Amino acid sequence: MFRSDLLRDKVIVITGGGTGLGRAIGERYLELGAKLAIASRRKDVLQTAAQEMTQNGGEVFYHPCDVRDPSQVTELFDAIYAHYGKVDILVNNAAGNFISPTERLSSRAVDSVLNIVLHGTFYMTLELGKRWIEEKKSGTMLNIVTTYAASGAGSGFVVPSAAAKAGVLTLTRSLAVEWAKYGIRQVAIAPGMFPTEGAWSRLVPSEEMGERLLNRVPLHRAGNKSELANLAAFLVSDEAAYINGEVVTIDGGEWLQGAGEFNELADLTNEDWDQLSAKMRSK
Ligand SMILES: CCCCCCCCCCC/C=C/C(=O)SCCNC(=O)CCNC(=O)[C@H](O)C(C)(C)COP(=O)(O)OP(=O)(O)OC[C@H]1O[C@@H](n2cnc3c(N)ncnc32)[C@H](O)[C@@H]1OP(=O)(O)O
Ligand SMILES: NC(=O)C1=CN([C@@H]2O[C@H](COP(=O)(O)OP(=O)(O)OC[C@H]3O[C@@H](n4cnc5c(N)ncnc54)[C@H](OP(=O)(O)O)[C@@H]3O)[C@@H](O)[C@H]2O)C=CC1
């Protein structure tokens, strides 16, 4: 699909790059010639991922970091610069989320999600942005949001995540304008349903419900991680150099299905339509 050197020698930092979608994105970037730095809280997860990801070659540097802590974020970039000497691309992928009626949340629960998603993304963006501006270096930042942020609708039962991801999208759009003069590009992806252990264990109440959810996707299936990874590769590549401040939704049409007032009529059969049409024409 892409030139095999699309991301050759690009140094790419991925938060949450040891699991789920972050890891899938990283694996694709490696195939396209990038050098990776992955970061998250659990050192053992990062270490195992780095080993497995480099079985066919390539380089994955890992460094534990809780993105909620600005001093750890500074240490992370110090370590990456000491190792690679530069960073070209940042993927803000780390997130926290769980389902709960909002009135049951403690203030610590709210902080936990807001601090990972909004503050963590902001600290990573700010630390690297300052370095790039000082170095007079251009670069690209990709933020992973959600369809409930991109649609503007938000969502009940994941309200801290909805508020935080909306903030991340606003950060993306704001800096796309402010930092364009430094050659810093901002883009975002809004994924729909991509089954991962991290998301499904916290967000899908039962296996049966998971199956049923697929029916609300017009394409009647979940996304493949490789589909998301290919989009993430294109958006950070030089081929997408004129895309700035945009969010690309990849959800099989799920959010549009919910938005169109008459879309539930997709459940009607041809026979239903024959009967309905005859009835309505007779009026
Ligand atoms: C029916 C429809 C289903 C649709 C399914 C389709 C899905 C598609 C859309 C998916 C959008 C996905 C967005 C995502 O972001 S997925 C990523 C999920 N991955 C993660 O969340 C990984 C990281 N998460 C965590 O580490 C934890 O979950 C947490 C965010 C809680 C942070 O961990 P930490 O160790 O810092 O936090 P604590 O355990 O100390 O807890 C802090 C306070 O939060 C309270 N808490 C924790 N869990 C819950 C819960 N489930 N419900 C209510 N409250 C919770 C905890 O009690 C602490 O508060 P207190 O000290 O006051 O007790
Ligand atoms: N899967 C899906 O269907 C969807 C996912 N998304 C988004 O995709 C991204 C990846 O999610 P997914 O792969 O599904 O889930 P995962 O749970 O696998 O990924 C979350 C990652 O974030 C890391 N992380 C969490 N808290 C912190 C922290 N404080 N500091 C550093 N790293 C942290 C975790 O590692 P560790 O625990 O080691 O810190 C983990 O690697 C997220 O932004 C999510 O919101 C959006 C829409 C749909």
Automatic annotation (TrEMBL):
UniProt-recorded Gene Ontology molecular function terms: trans-2-enoyl-CoA reductase (NADPH) activity
InterPro entries reported in the protein's UniProt record: NAD(P)-bd_dom_sf (IPR036291), Peroxisomal_t2-enoyl-CoA_red (IPR052388), SDR_fam (IPR002347)
This enzyme's EC code(s): 1.3.1.38
The entry's keywords: Fatty acid biosynthesis, Fatty acid metabolism, Lipid biosynthesis, Lipid metabolism, NADP, Oxidoreductase, Peroxisome, Phosphoprotein
Pfam families the UniProt entry points to: adh_short_C2
Catalyzed reaction equations: (2E)-decenoyl-CoA + NADPH + H(+) = decanoyl-CoA + NADP(+); (2E)-dodecenoyl-CoA + NADPH + H(+) = dodecanoyl-CoA + NADP(+); (2E)-octenoyl-CoA + NADPH + H(+) = octanoyl-CoA + NADP(+); (2E)-hexenoyl-CoA + NADPH + H(+) = hexanoyl-CoA + NADP(+)
Transmembrane domains' residue ranges: none
GO BP terms, alphabetized: bile acid metabolic process; fatty acid biosynthetic process
Pathway annotation from the record: Lipid metabolism
Subcellular location: Peroxisome
PANTHER family in the cross-refs: PEROXISOMAL TRANS-2-ENOYL-COA REDUCTASE (PTHR24317)
Subunit structure as annotated in this protein's UniProt entry: Interacts with PEX5, probably required to target it into peroxisomes.
Function: Participates in chain elongation of fatty acids. Catalyzes the reduction of trans-2-enoyl-CoAs of varying chain lengths from 6:1 to 16:1, having maximum activity with 10:1 CoA. Has no 2,4-dienoyl-CoA reductase activity.
Identification of the protein by name: Peroxisomal trans-2-enoyl-CoA reductase
